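Team,

Forwarding the record for the chain on the shared tracking sheet. I've put the sequence and predicted structure together so nobody has to dig through attachments.
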Amino acid sequence: MKRNILIHPDPRLKKLCDPVADMSDALRALADDMLETMYDAPGIGLAAPQIGILQRVITLDCTAQDEDNRALVMFNPEIVESSEETSSYEEGCLSIPDQYAEVVRPAEVTVRWMDVDGKEQQETFADLWATCVQHEIDHLNGKLFIDYLKPLKRQMITRKMQKLKRERARA
């Protein structure tokens, strides 16, 4: 089931999310909903707080549209290692539509998480995958990509989002 994506500023996007205790059918259904919502948006990543669920769940798929999907669902993801080398990507966010900015992050990260079967997984990500997984994990910690920007640019984007929300409320 496709879910509504929250638009910044929304207080739920700034909250620290709770860890997932045990795998359940409800969590698997949430993961399916998140993937459907992410692909429909369309986006390459989605975190549970973006649909108003304050739990540590993210979905991502950075494969090109013409490739086979490589959908990843991560419960309780945590970065266990980061490279000193950095990379810069122009990031966007489904909760901050049509706004993009360069963000510098570690070029490679190793992430540990629980999969939909409750098994622990660990993988090292690079390039766009590394940026995406860090961006989504930030959401679980109440941090948005605009939090990396200078205050003036961040305020300008926030004002645009407030205007967008007012326009959508009137429609």
